[in-house]
Amino acid sequence: MRALDDSLLDAHARADTRALVGLYTQAADSVNDADAAGFFLTHAYVFALELGDGRAAQLHARLCAEGREA
User: Fold this and answer.
1) Which domain of life, per UniProt (predicted)?
2) Chain-centre distance of CA 55, in angstroms?
């Protein structure tokens, strides 16, 4: 997870929103804690919305399926 954390920090420093969508999704997929996964998915979703990225629909569906978005 350390490499992923470093990648997230780097993407934030570069304001690379496209990378942040993927990295936060990857972080959500890599944790075994539902609350942490929800946190990461929410961030991925918000960044995807900001970009108008097509991944937003899939992220929204995942959040809904996990009871985190209506």
Assistant:
1) Bacteria
2) 10
**Are the C-beta atoms of residues 17 and 50 closer than 8 Å to each other?**
yes
Nearest to 21 by CA among 40, 38, 35, 2: 40
Q: Mind giving me the DSSP string for 9-39?
A: HHHHHTT-HHHHHHHHHHHHHH-S-HHHHHH
Is residue 19 included in any domain, yes or no? yes
Q: What is the pLDDT of residues 21-69, one digit of tens each?
A: 999 999 999 999 999 999 999 999 999 999 999 999 999 999 999 999 7
- Asked if the structure places residue 70 within a domain, the reply is no
> What total of structural domains would you count in the chain?
1
